[in-house]
Amino acid sequence: xxxxxxxxxxxxxxxxxxxxxxxxxxxxxxxxxxxxxxxxxxxxxxxxxxxxxxxxxxxxxxxxxxxxxxxxxxxxxxxxxxxxxxxxxxxxxxxxxxxxxxxxxxxxxxxxxxxxxxxxxxxxxxxxxxxxxxxxxxxxxxxxxxxxxxxxxxxxxxxxxxxxxxxxxxxxxxxxxxxxxxxxxxxxxxxxxxxxxxxxxxxxxxxxxxxxxxxxxxxxxxxxxxxxxxxxxxxxxxxxxxxxxxxx
Length: 248
Description:
Layout: E1 2-13, E2 16-27, E3 31-35, H1 42-50, E4 57-62, E5 71-74, H2 78-81, H3 88-92, H4 94-98, H5 103-116, H6 132-144, E6 150-154, H7 162-179, E7 182-187, H8 190-196, E8 199-203, E9 210-215, H9 230-247
Parallel strand pairs: 3-7, 3-8, 5-6, 6-7
Antiparallel strand pairs: 1-2, 1-4, 8-9
Helix pairs in contact: 6-7, 8-9
């Protein structure tokens, strides 16, 4: 069953087409990775799905209209979305505060969330006292504390080193499995896109269209061993061939 369907989505800026004829069904509870060239309009697509931007043409149909009010978004520049004068627990619980939850309830919910996902961060520190990976976790926890129907992440791990990246990939899979949300994840790393996803959506150059949709039938739970198995390599080869064809 689809959570949402995009039909013939178009978007231009200053008369220059960015997205063209984007048609996509996102299955409820699935993990969808979007991969494509730099500046291809991946973030624009997320912004349209989230309602931050209106498409110039086409439409989005939700299985339930109330679902579009239960979307959480972790932005690419996540550091800039954390308030430096707020402690970690205050940053994470901000969506609850905006829903008029009291201070005690907010703090309790944050403590429950970090315990649930075995995240060891000093909740009384300020964001600037944390590492980049910890700041990213704070942004993710803030996004999931309201139990969203759809969680969107925009190149969330691009600024992290390889080891920290692998660690957070496992953590986001753990969180996704636990909260039962649908995830749309933008990545500029093809291995990462395949490793995390049930389906990889490959975008071409501007005006951007979808040039390949690849279902990823690799058993879960996944581990780093899957990155070198024959099935993974076959998926990567197929997607890479499609991607390189658009660069010629």
